[in-house]
Amino acid sequence: MSARKKGSRPPEFGLFLIPEADNYQQLTELTTYAESAGLDLIGVQDHPYQRRFLDTWTLITALAMRTERLTFFPDVANLPLRNPAVLAKSVASLDIMTGGRIHLGLGAGAFWAAIAAMGGYHLSAGESVQTLAEGIAVIRAMWSDERSVRVPGTYHLLAGAHPGPQPQHDPGIWLGAKGPRMLALTGQRADGWLPSAAWAPPEFLTEAGKRIDDAAAAAHRDPRAIRRVYNLSGTITADGTDYGFLEGPPERWVDDLSTLHRDQRIDGFIFWPTEGDPVDQVHRYAELVAPAVRTNVAS
């Protein structure tokens, strides 16, 4: 029996990369493997204050230039430390250079002491949502074909800026949203939602997904137009041991992901293992899990 609902997107599969400077060679090897194995997406976390991390945008650029098919996105870009007008230009530039293979994952920020130490604002929860809303408006204006744009704002604004170049395709803005105000903003203004299994189990997905759908409907938007891309953290066991959700053999993972696609409208799965050899885990995911889920939901 098919696990795919009528009108839902076919699922895409990808990897979640941690941009450790000492691990650059393995990151390039995993990306090359992901391309050859038929995966779709590469997400790279963005924590500029981590001294052992490469700059996320520089890493994405380097990896994207090594590939021909994979789509890349920051998972998620740290807006408090990335000027949205410049970020919009970076996204558009790389989208052109890669032939339309860039999306924008965007976050309101966290670890505020570390952000402030690098010169960013130390914001309250309410201020961070306001800042993100202003950033979204700036980014969309910078992707427009207008000759000059003005966007009012307290933290992020445009005062007669000249947009361009336009991206080759619409990259979309996917929000890493957890709280009620962020979920509402996702429904009102975003193109996608990027929850993580570490803090968003299936029961949370149900409640949060309804908040997003309600906010989208109130804003006269089609809730189903908002993508749901799920960051997966777990272990694909080799000995058949089944510990529960996202902690078991490939068959368990196929069942879990097919159910998420059917019941939660998840259409993107971004994987990073929590235990074991990451290379071996990625091979199991790409060769045993992703193809079986594709077959299951399309049968």
TrEMBL record:
Residues 19-233 form the Luciferase-like domain. Signal peptide: none annotated. InterPro entries: F420-G6PD/mer (IPR050564), Luciferase-like_dom (IPR011251), Luciferase-like_sf (IPR036661). Keywords: Oxidoreductase. This is LLM class flavin-dependent oxidoreductase. It comes from Nocardia vinacea.
